[in-house]
C-alpha cells in the first residue's frame, strides 16, 4: 500500500530566508506523526506544503500515492486539514459552515446531512450548532475547524496545533473520539 504521506526534499524559501531546508518523511497508514520545534522552526510551513496550500520551492509530496503538484484536487480528497488558528467564515453559524464545507466536498441531500451530523457528534458541537462562529470561544472554534477537517472521512488528517485537551468531560470526549482516527478511518 502507498504511504499515507511521502515528502521528499521539501524546501521553502521566502525571499532570502530559508524557512524549511529539506524535509524527507514517510508516514504509513495508522501512524501518528507530530512535529515538535521552537516557534518559527517551520512546522506550519511544512504542513502548508504537505497540504498543498503553499507551493514548495523544491521537493515533492505524495498523499496516498497522488502527487500534490500534479493532481492537487485528488490529493486533497484523501486529506483533512485543520490549519493554524480557526479560519472559518465568522458570520456563518456552525450549521451553515459545515453544510457549506459538505457541499464543497461534493456531498448533497441526505448524505451531506448525515456527514454533518456525524462530524458534529464526534466533535461535540451540538450545543452551539446554530450559533455564529464569531461568537464562539477559541476552543469551540477549533472544534469547528476539526469538524470540517473530518467531514469527508479522510484517510489522512493533518492538524496544526490540534484542539487543546482539557480534563472537562466535553473536551475529553472530543479528543477521545478523534484519538483512534488512524485505525478506524477508511484507507486510500
Ligand atoms: N508567508 C511568509 N513570508 C515570509 N516569511 C514567512 C512566511 N510564512 C512563514 N514565514 C517565516 O517562516 C518561518 C517559519 O514559520 P512557521 O509558521 O512555519 O513556524 P512554526 O514552526 O509553525 O512556528 P510556531 O511554533 O510559532 O507556530 C518563520 O520565520 C516565519 O516568519
Ligand atoms: Mg505554526
Overview in brief:
This protein has 188 residues and is an alpha+beta fold. It has seven helices and six strands; from the N terminus they run ββαββαβαααβαα.
How would you describe this protein?
There is one protein chain. The protein has 188 residues and is of the alpha+beta class. It has helices spanning 43-50, 72-77, 94-104, 109-123, 138-150, 169-178, 181-184, and strands spanning 5-14, 17-27, 58-63, 66-67, 79-82, 156-159. The protein folds into two domains: 5-77, P-loop containing nucleotide triphosphate hydrolases (Rossmann fold, 3-Layer(aba) Sandwich); 94-184, 3-Layer(aba) Sandwich (Rossmann fold). Helix 4 (109-123) crosses helix 5 (138-150). The structure holds adenosine-5'-triphosphate (ATP) and magnesium ion (MG). Residues 14, 19, 37, 39-45 line the site of adenosine-5'-triphosphate (ATP).
Q: What do the pLDDT scores average to?
A: 88
Cα gyration radius (Å): 17 Å
What is the fold named in CATH at topology level of the largest domain? Answer: Rossmann fold
Count of individual beta strands? 6
In terms of structural class, how would the helical and strand content be classed?
alpha+beta
